[in-house]
Each structure stands twice: as structure tokens, then as C-alpha cells.
Amino acid sequence: MESMKQVKNNNVDLISNNDPLDKNRALIEDLWESVLREECPNEQADRLIKLKELSYSNQVNQANSNNFKNKIVEIEENLRDAIFGWFETPSLEYDLITFGLHGGAQWMGASLDPYNQFLYIPVNSVPWKLRPYAQSREIKTFFNNELKESYKLYLNKCSACHGKNRNGKNIKYKEKQIEYVPNLVGYYTIPGIENKLDNLKLLNTKHKNLMVKQEEIEMLKKLFETWDKKINENNEIKIEGNGMAWSQFLTKDGLPASNPPWGYIAKLNLETGKIEWKAAHGDLKIDGKDQKIGTISFGGTALNGSDILFFTGTEDSKAYALDAKSGKELWSYKMSSAGSTAPTIFNHNGKQFVTFLATGGNYHNYTKKSSTIYTFGIDD
Ligand code: HEC
Q1: 127 exposed, middle or buried (CB, 10 Å; 0-12, 13-18, 19+)?
Q2: Residue that wins the pLDDT comparison between 379 and 239
Q3: Atom of ligand 1 nearest to the CA of 183
Q4: Pocket probe mutation, ligand 1, options 80, 96, 206, max atoms within 8 Å of Cβ
């Protein structure tokens, strides 16, 4: 947290940033508005800014937020080497924490009511951690007498975690990072990450049982400098920004490191730009209890002519029917796994049906898999 403030002068805290009433949000909002004013015609920018303001006057119930206050310390610890924001560039130096990957409004099917000009949008509101990384592609490592001892020191004291090539470790299951040890490649050739070995105190804070000594650091610095220059000359350093460079930013118990709801549906009035309601659906077991928290969802919505909004894709594997006027739940059904695409509404012999496809798609919190199609008749 400290380093983030000092280096970037970006006084925004992740938790409160997700809270529209908090004053810190104004910082990001100012930035957002100024970019919008630069990029869009005036009229469009005005409209988007108004739309956002209106949406804040209609937030979903935030009562659950208090349960998560004890996570703040843990989250701050993880943010020690992070920057946060919507318009920051990903960097080799810090984790970038940002919203919007696999979410915001862009991922799943929205539904349009063309007669009344309403749009129903499933939204995910969870933070992600992005960090491009350097990798060494050196095949054989060899050092002359002068550096032999230093290399031995590296192999003995560091390589078990950071790898023989200094490539670190990154084990992921879909969006969830399971094990991560940063790489140590390129400190002497890649601008921006050059001082990582200098701060012995920080190093010993990060490695509680390692007890690195000053003379060891000096040896390793010499080793790394020669090593980096050598692999750089041989074109053996690669910067990666692939799927391993991002993961969902989660707390230790696997929950998104932001205030719930983590997923909700927003009903947008296309004529006034007003958000009519936001409704969080999707139960999650937290502290042994099922809570209607609003889980992330990768399903979608479908609306029929009687103002019933069908919705699926939440982590509780349910198919939902909601009252489109209020967002309230009318009906739900627990399927064999999570819905994985937008529901389909169709008519047959004068009767209306709705179909949900449940596969438990491709998201780490969809623990069950199946291949089931559920079709329900809709009574008049
Ligand atoms: C037991 C496993 C382990 C060993 C052994 C280990 N490290 Fe680490 N190292 C880590 C982990 C995990 C992190 C990330 C910790 C964090 O950011 O809080 C890390 C972080 C670092 C960082 C910061 C990198 C960055 O991108 O921020 C440096 C530099 C580093 N280690 C150097 C070393 C050196 C030098 C040695 C040997 C003297 C060493 N480490 C030994 C696990 C290890």
C-alpha cells in the first residue's frame, strides 16, 4: 500500500474504490471523465457521465460489505507491490489490479426490451491481477571460476523456488492462481525493474526464513548482472503477456478481493440513461451458510413478452426467473452444474418454453461439470 502511494501518488484503495459513495472514487472518476472528454464527442461524453451518476443513485444493498472488513489487512498485504486503476498500463514492476477482465458489462448475453427501451445487463464486478513477466530461454547455464561460487549460492539458496533459470513459478487453474514465485530475470537489462536486489531489508521481509546477508547479495548482484547481459545478447529473454500474466485477485479463502455483490443484473433505461434497478442473484456458502451474495456469472439473460427475465450462470448452478419490473426472484431451479450460455425462449404448439444449458463452463468456481439441457414450460 505504501509503495503504491509513494511511487504512483495514486491514493486509491481497492475496497473503497468499489464503493461509489467513498470520496476516493472521485480520483478515478476524474480520470475517467477526462479521458472520455478527450476521446468522445461532447454530447456522447455528457450522456455517459450522466448515465454513470444516475447509476450510483441506485446501488444494490451493500449490507454484506461489513462481513469482509477483516479481509482488508490481507488484501493490503497483497497490494504491497501493486498499482490500481482502469487506465494504468500493465508493468513488469508491479501487479496491476483492475476491474473489467471477464466482466463489467461485456461478457455475457444482455437482453433488450425493444418496446420499452430497457436493456438487462449481467455485470461482473471482481478485481483482476495483471503482470507481464520476463522469462529466460537459456538452455545451458555455465559460469567461469569467478562467478562459480555465486552461481552455487544461487542454486543452494534461491533456485528451489525461483528456478534454475530464475524463471520463477506460476501455477494456475483457469483464472485462479495457485502458486506464484516471481521470476528474477532481466534486472540488469530491462528498464524499470533494476533495483529489486538492492533492498536487503525488503528481501528479508519477503523471505522470512532465508536470512540473506549483505555479502551474499553482493555476490548475487554480480552474478545476475553478468547472467542477464549474457542471455540478453543471445536474445534469450522473452517478455510474456499471455494467459499466465493475469489471474483473479482473490483472498486466501478464494473470494474476490472486492466488496460484494460480485455479480448482478442491471436494468438500464435506454431513453433516460437511468439504471432502474440492480439485482444480485447467486448464493454462495460463506462461513458455512448459504448467502445470497451475488456471485460472478458467465451465463446470460433472456426476456419474454410478459416481463419475465430468465437468467443463469451463477456459481450456485441455478436457473432463475426474475420479475423484470423489479429484479425480484420469481422462481429458481438448481441444475446439475452452472448454466453456461444465455437461456433460449421458444414457442411450440402455442405454448412458451425456456431452455437452459448447464455444462459448468470454464470458470474455476464452477466446480461441477455436466452436459444437461433443461426445458421448462411457461404457464400463462
Ligand atoms: C522458499 C521459496 C523462496 C526462496 C528459497 C527464495 N525466494 Fe525469493 N521470493 C519467493 C516468493 C514467494 C516471492 C514473492 C514474495 C512477495 O512478493 O511477497 C519472492 C520474491 C523475491 C524477490 C522480489 C521479486 C519481485 O518481482 O518483486 C526477489 C528479488 C527475490 N525473491 C530474490 C530471492 C533471492 C535472491 C533468493 C535467494 C537468496 C530467494 N529469493 C530465495 C520465494 C522464495
Answers
A1: buried
A2: 239
A3: 26
A4: 206
